[in-house]
Amino acid sequence: MPSRQSGLAEMEVLTRLLDDRFRIPGTSIHFGLDGLIGLVPGLGDAATTVASLYLVYRARALGAPKPVLARMIVNILADTAVGAIPLLGDVFDVAFKANRRNLDLLRRTLKEGAGRG
Asked: What is the torsional sign of CA 25, 29, 30, 33?
């Protein structure tokens, strides 16, 4: 089982790639492969959903409680459902950043859990 720190570092790399890797020049707007691959109808959204679900799998391995895992899945479902709508979904992918939300939620949860020990 990976250490918590190395697991979070791995998840950060994937999250950055999916949600934050690129910046629109002259703006503070960042987007990742989720926004780009999502432009491919059907297949793109399916591929990024699988990557997002991998992050939930890793969160479970790091000890995230079931309510947190459920919230992460709800974020992914919202991203997938709205992301499937042409054009609106592409804008939503750039703005919503389900993977960044999920990683931030996981970090807060693990930090709070560490404070209780």
From this structure: negative
Q: SS3 of 40, please?
A: coil
pLDDT in tens, 29-47: 999 999 888 888 778 889 9
Instruction: State the pTM of this model.
Output: 0.90
What is the three-state SS of 53-71? HHHHHHHHHCCCCHHHHHH
Q: 75, 72, 50: which is closest to 62 by C-alpha?
A: 72
| Tens-place pLDDT, residues 43-72 | 888 999 999 999 999 999 999 999 999 999
Which residue in 67, 41, 43 sits closest to 56, CA to CA?
A: 67
| CA-based nearest residue to 17, from 54, 43, 60, 42 | 54
Domain boundaries, the chain: 4-109
Report the greatest alpha carbon distance in the chain: 47
Closest-CA residue to 52 (of 103, 112, 105, 115): 103
